[in-house]
Amino acid sequence: MIVVDGLRVEAGKSVILDGVDLTVPPGRMLALVGPNGAGKTTLLRTIAGLHRPSRGRVLLEDRPVHSLRPQVLARRIAYLPQDTALSFPFTAYQVTLMGRHPHMGRFALEGAADHEAAEQAMAATGTTRLADRSMATLSGGERQLVLLAKALAQDAPVLLADEPVSALDLRHQLAVLQLLRACADAGRTVLVVLHDLNLAARYCTELALLAGGRVLAAGEPAHVLTPAHLHEAYGVRAVVRRDDVTDSLTVTALETT
Ligand SMILES: Nc1ncnc2c1ncn2[C@@H]1O[C@H](COP(=O)(O)OP(=O)(O)OP(=O)(O)O)[C@@H](O)[C@H]1O
């Protein structure tokens, strides 16, 4: 269970998040949506313990994340960052196996269970064929999938993913969201930043719409994705309909306002 309580995050003189409250129980998949610069990445990084709030707190099973030792935190929270452009001098398999480090002793080598977890994570993300390739030679989408494999191999009860489908083709977008949804259905807590509101409405149990560092609306897709909220958050005129085939909400943005 993740509880965000009265969170305020500042960087220099700027207030990036203010008064943010959010509760995500196990078994839920919540999408953080909102315009560029709304504070989605900052919120995810703060939940991951990477930013210190100036006010409020983030609780993980009733304990402030900032009070947890890094290795303990890494066993509880897997964080998949947005920026995958870094070139690692490692193979895809080595990077995936790094997801196991929080489970290993300080000077221990990876054991059979760690290799098995890494292999399973690569199979789940369809990256087994890339195992021996250097990360530096992979396409943006392939890198994104390998970093997801690393996060899955970490086998943490909380999974935070920042725009995990931004570089992916249609099939891989669905595959990754199905995989994240399966993680939630299996009891993990999943928070995912998505720009595609239609995918967010289809795969997530709830949404939180951020704008200007605050939560404008949170809850079921039907509560959050209203023309009025979309106008206020994005400055667009939009229509929201239910899709005949998927039975989920779809947003069509018509024009900027
Ligand atoms: N270290 C920093 N110093 C000053 N401003 C910052 C810092 N980090 C982030 N910001 C600002 O905070 C705001 C929120 O940034 P953040 O990356 O969280 O937004 P986002 O919602 O994830 O955006 P995007 O959809 O474009 O990825 C932005 O205006 C950004 O410029």
UniProtKB/TrEMBL annotation:
Annotated ranges, domain ABC transporter: 2-237
Give the molecular function GO annotations: ATP binding; ATP hydrolysis activity
Which keywords accompany this UniProt record? Answer: ATP-binding, Nucleotide-binding, Translocase, Transport
Q: Which InterPro entries match?
A: AAA+_ATPase (IPR003593), ABC_transporter-like_ATP-bd (IPR003439), ABC_transporter-like_CS (IPR017871), P-loop_NTPase (IPR027417)
Which Pfam families does this UniProt record tie to the protein? ABC_tran (PF00005)
ATP-binding recorded as keyword: yes
**SUPFAM superfamilies documented for this protein:** P-loop containing nucleoside triphosphate hydrolases
Q: What is this protein called?
A: Iron complex transport system ATP-binding protein
Annotated source species: Thermocatellispora tengchongensis
